[in-house]
Each structure stands twice: as C-alpha cells, then as structure tokens.
Amino acid sequence: MNILLAVSGGIAAYKSAELVRLLRKRGADVRVVMTRSAREFVAPLTFQALSGSPVHTELLDADEENAMGHINLARWADVLIIAPATANSIAKCSHGLADDLLSTLYLAATCPVYIAPAMNQAMWNKAVTQENIQKLKSHGVTVIGPAQGDQACGETGFGRMSEPLEICERLLAEPLVRRLQGLKVLISAGPTREPLDSVRYITNRSSGKMGYALADAALKAGAQVTLVSGPVQLAAPVNIEVIRVETASQMYAAIISRAPEHDIYIGAAAVADYSPVVMQSEKIKKQAEQITLTLQKTRDILAEVAQLEHRPFTVGFAAETHDLERYAQDKLARKKPDMIAANWVGGDQGGFDSDQNALQVFWKNGQKTLAMTGKNQLAAQLISLIAERLSEKPVLKKPLG
Predict the structure, then answer these.
(1) Among 185, 210, 239, 297, which one is most buried in terms of CB atoms within 10 A?
(2) Does this model's pTM top 0.70?
(3) Is residue 177 scored above 80 in pLDDT?
(4) Domains assigned to the chain
(5) Are 313 and 383 in contact (CB under 8 A)?
(6) Distance (Å) of CA 279 to CA 184, 202, 251, 295, 297
(7) Which residues are known to be catalytic?
(8) Cβ neighbours of residue 274 under 8 Å, at least 6 residues apart?
C-alpha cells in the first residue's frame, strides 16, 4: 500500500515519525510531505531516514521531471493521511485553499483521505473548528481522534493527536484496494428539464449529490469516469469527464452512444418519465381557467442499456415513496439490469435534496441493505458492492484511451 503522510506544524509532529516507522514495519510504502511550520518541529532528514524516500516540502519543485510534483504524489498514493492535522490545515482543506503543498495535495488527491487532528483543547472546541471538521466529513474525509489528556501547553482536554499505533491500525485495518482499476465507468446524475415553453419546464427535486458522490467514489477506486449530468448546483468533479445535458432525450443520446465503450453504467439520474409532445415557442399566457398538457413517454435509458449487444455491467436506481421492495424487484425483472439500488424519498428518509441516504440493493437471488449515512460514504459502499458483484460476473474490459 502506498501511504502519503502530510505533516503540518504542531508539537505532535514528533509522533508522526513513529507512525512512519510502524507503517513501514507492516509493509507499507510511505512518502512524507512537510509544511514549512512542520520543519520547525522535526527535521526532514528524520522522515527521510525512516521512510527511505526523499521528503517533499515545496509546491513547485524544479527537480521534478515535469514540475508537477503534487499531481504525481496524489496519483501515487492509495491513501492520504494528514497527521498532525492542525486547526490551520483543517481550515484550509475544508475551504478548498491551495497555497502550499499539503493543501494542494488534498485537493488533487482522488484516494481516501484521513486526518488526525492535533491542537489546543480550546481550539478544538471552537465552533468554527467543529464546522470545518463536519465539512470535511461531508466530503468523505475520515477523522481519527483526537484523544483526551494532558497537552503540551499544560492544559487538559480533547485535542491530543491519536497515538501512532492507533492511526496505523486504522489505516491498515481494511486493505485499500483500487477495485475498479483499469475499468471505465459511466454514471448519470441529477434531474432533467422538459420544456413547456420558452421559459417553463417540468423537472424534479433531484440534487445530483448521489450521482456525483458515486463518480468520486469510482474515481477513488481506480476507474476512468464519465459523468453525464443534468442541471445541478454542484461543482464539476476534478479528473472526471462531465457531459452536460438538460432534457431526457439529450441524456438518452449521451448515455446510449457511450455505454458500449464502458465496463459499468450506473443510472443515478432522475430522468423524466414523460415530456411535453409540443414545446410552445412563446410563453404560454395566463388566460383560460384550465389548460391541457399532452405528455409522451420518454425512452427508457436503463432498459435500453441493459439490452445493448455490448452492454456494460448495469446498475439502476429506484426512488420510491411506498412499497419499495416490490417496485424495485419489479424494475429488476422488467428492465433486466444487473443491480437495482432502491431508496425511499420524502419526509426524513433521505434521498432528494438531502446529504444523507440509505439504499436497499437488489440483484438476482440476492440483496443487501446499506444503512443511512452521508452520501459520500454510501457511494463508497455501493461502489464496493458493485466491485464484488462484478468479480462474480466478469465483463470484457474496454481499452482505456
């Protein structure tokens, strides 16, 4: 396992040297990044001797072959751990700043990210620090610690960095395997808009958060990802090809043309079931007490992908307000995807507009429940389950490039 350790400036930096030793002892390949402040506490030579590799300290390193050392390091890593993670480094990462090597690596990393906070107990308990921690958790970052106890400043409380052995065991508890390495994954996300006239349209409440989280999780699992996205208020994922569409017919065309060249298709978009037969070229005026809209069925993307001659491993979504299992099993039987991920919508059950969700996943002769959690964590669980099912039903890998 390739572990990238980023050391920020705090007295707990001395513990990070022991962390390197423990990780190396257990067979991990470790490379170390240090901030300028960290070098005031521990010399880079210490980490170089323990890791067996040069220590990286500068964002723009002229000695790098292409002067893009931060990208090279981010792609090398199977996991990034920031230890100690000071209040300053946590704030930078949570707000997307990139003014040094550590914060830039965080933004460039597509692998799982862990942080081990270390700071004064008052700083840890500050509301803004807790807000930053929660923001990082919502982005899929795993937080280890902090512990409670005596601190270097003489105070007592939460804020001590977790012990190196605990951090080491957490990092190595489950092998972080790039289970989709070399595969091409196509994902749809968000709603569609079906125009009524030049200013109005029919749509739904899908935020696209689940589909975008799945795209990020697939990327972290080693896949080359293409995301076909309806109109959403989400930032474009880094290192993922994004195809912007608006209507159901545009989404159909984008997916059907690309699906045969992909190994996996995940249909997480909330595609309109019906669209207006006629779009009025001018705004419909408010005149009659009632008007009649004639709608026609849109083409069924999931069913058609599942019927392709060179079909990818196909995963559909089913958002239901009642009788979830019956509708999901019916969809599985009629449309014949390999898996259906079903979720409740409405009320406090997660789904649309929410950062939380839960899934009941069905496949032929099997099912699994993924409990309510953040959509980033849920996406990682679903990608892992897809990888398991895929290993039992091999598909021909499409060439990358």
Answers:
(1) 210
(2) no
(3) no
(4) 2-172 (3.40.50.1950), 184-392 (3.40.50.10300)
(5) no
(6) 36, 11, 18, 10, 15
(7) 153
(8) 194, 202, 295, 296, 297, 298
